[in-house]
Amino acid sequence: MDCPALTSSLYTPKIIWYQTDVAVILRVMLQDVKNYFLRVEADHLQFSTIINDKGYYISLYLFGSVIPEKTTHINMEREIKINLMKAFKWAGWLRLQASKQKIPHIALDPDHIYETNWTKDVFVYDAENGLAAFARRNNINIMPDVPSTDEEESEDEEMNPLFL
């Protein structure tokens, strides 16, 4: 059975987003919004409004989980800014929506893109240069191993519940 394609009379506004370690910030690019509906669940966001007899609607299944109770939003006349608090802080989102499909009305905020400073060196122990040379080259502090006495180890075992 062939079903006809679904069509909607509602429009989808442009969304510009970025993330920090603890939050995902969305900017819904709509001007002169008076009233709007916003519903945020742990992994789903719904937004709708009517401007000049045109209906706008967003339904996003989010890439990660958020804390709905800590969501804040503000109407800034030229855009609606929505601040979603991540449920798992410091976990970077690869994209805004759960779907891998590219959605043309969703874009990263170019003012908030940053590069992580990952080292591209692969550590291979070289007997000639050694670990100390690798650490100096990559600004890594390596604390020397200090042998402990048996007495200190037994105190650690008594204090640590994993040894009980």
Automatic annotation (TrEMBL):
It holds the Pfam family CS. Residues 144-164 are annotated as: Disordered. The keyword Endoplasmic reticulum does not apply. It comes from the Eukaryota. GO terms for biological process: germ-line stem cell division. Residues 148-164 have a biased composition (Acidic residues). Residues 10-97 form the CS domain. Keywords: ATP-binding, Helicase, Hydrolase, Nucleotide-binding, Repeat. The keyword Hydrolase applies. One of its GO terms (molecular function) is ATP binding. It catalyses: ATP + H2O = ADP + phosphate + H(+). Its EC number is 3.6.4.13. The lineage of its organism: Eukaryota, Metazoa, Ecdysozoa, Arthropoda, Hexapoda. This is RNA helicase.
